[in-house]
């Protein structure tokens, strides 16, 4: 994988800048008497520099340089610090530091705003997260097992997060091209007007019973979605609407027990929402909707 640095760089948000947030302060750590605090401070200084170098090279999209940084740090560990790697606290600290690094890397790789990502850059990012586990395994082969385990574990969470967000960006880019086409939007609105949501909700009730509150939310949300289409809303507007919907109907879904969040109630709502969506897709298919397949499948995934 050879990358000379993509010509469109993504910069960090104003909240983080180009420097990593603070790492744990060694003076605040409770260390066993057998652990030299000065050595721990030296390791932390080195590890922060190592992580900052990874961040800097990711910002410039020189992804393959990460492999050499990993090899240099872990296989060039100074002899007087090697004993620290055998302590349990070092793996906990490394896990925390890696989590901080990966959070910032996600901000760099996937912008918070829905920007069109060039295909070549997306390909480079996918290649990077595909190679990262192998790079880690090779560079860590001489380190204690608990170090290898924790670094690979944290990296897996990072990789899964990047994959999910890349998928969302790709879907958003597809949806953007649809939402900017007036003829397409007109067809979608016309097709939705013919959908009998009451009948669909009755059908869904045979599979997943819904109370009056849930049915009301579904009807209101369907109307809100149609209004957004009529206004030719942007992808960003649809995303904000979905965020508000999840906040209102899932994260803050009222329960009879305590009026607060309840996981099973939220799961019931999400199942009902998915079922309604599937039945709407089926209805559009049965009525040979002009916009179905060509446009709706992408918007359903989004």
Layout: helices, strands, pairs:
Blueprint (H helix, E strand, L loop, with lengths): L36 H23 L5 H11 L3 H4 L5 H22 L9 H21 L5 H35 L2 H12 L3 H11 L4 H19 L4 H17 L11 H24 L9 H6 L1
Q: What does this protein look like?
A:
This protein has 302 residues and is mostly helical. Helices cover 68% and strands 0% of the residues. The protein has helices at residues 37-59, 65-75, 79-82, 88-109, 119-139, 145-179, 182-193, 197-207, 212-230, 235-251, 263-286, 296-301. It is elongated and about 75 Å long. The protein starts with 36 loop residues before the first helix and ends with a helix.
Could you write a compact summary of the structure shown?
By secondary structure, the chain is mainly α. The protein has helices spanning 37-59, 65-75, 79-82, 88-109, 119-139, 145-179, 182-193, 197-207, 212-230, 235-251, 263-286, 296-301.
């Amino acid at each position: 994988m050879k990358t000379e640095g993509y010509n469109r760089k993504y910069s960090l948000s104003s909240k983080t800048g180009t420097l990593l947030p603070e790492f744990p302060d060694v003076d605040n750590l409770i260390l066993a008497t057998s652990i030299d605090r000065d050595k721990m401070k030296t390791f932390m200084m080195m590890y922060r520099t190592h992580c900052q170098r990874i961040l800097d090279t990711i910002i410039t999209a020189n992804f393959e340089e990460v492999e050499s940084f990993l090899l240099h740090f872990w296989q060039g560990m100074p002899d007087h610090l090697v004993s620290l790697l055998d302590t349990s606290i070092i793996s906990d600290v490394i896990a925390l530091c890696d989590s901080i690094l990966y959070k910032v890397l996600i901000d760099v790789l996937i912008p918070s705003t829905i920007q069109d990502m060039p295909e070549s850059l997306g390909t480079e990012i996918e290649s990077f997260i595909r190679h990262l586990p192998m790079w880690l395994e090779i560079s860590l082969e001489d380190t204690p097992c608990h170090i290898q385990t924790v670094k690979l574990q944290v990296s897996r969470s990072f990789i899964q997060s990047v994959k999910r967000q890349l998928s969302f960006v790709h879907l958003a880019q597809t949806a953007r091209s649809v939402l900017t086409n007036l003829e397409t939007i007109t067809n979608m609105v016309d097709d939705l007007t013919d959908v009998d949501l009451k009948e669909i909700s009755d059908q869904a009730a045979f599979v997943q019973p819904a109370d009056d509150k849930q049915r009301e939310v579904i009807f209101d949300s369907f109307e809100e979605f149609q209004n957004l289409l009529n206004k030719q809303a942007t992808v960003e507007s649809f995303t904000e609407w979905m965020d508000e919907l999840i906040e209102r109907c899932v994260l803050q879904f009222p329960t009879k027990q305590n009026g607060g969040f309840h996981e099973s109630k939220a799961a019931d709502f999400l199942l009902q929402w998915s079922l309604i969506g599937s039945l709407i897709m089926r209805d559009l298919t049965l009525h040979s909707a002009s916009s179905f397949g060509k446009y709706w499948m992408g918007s359903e995934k989004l």
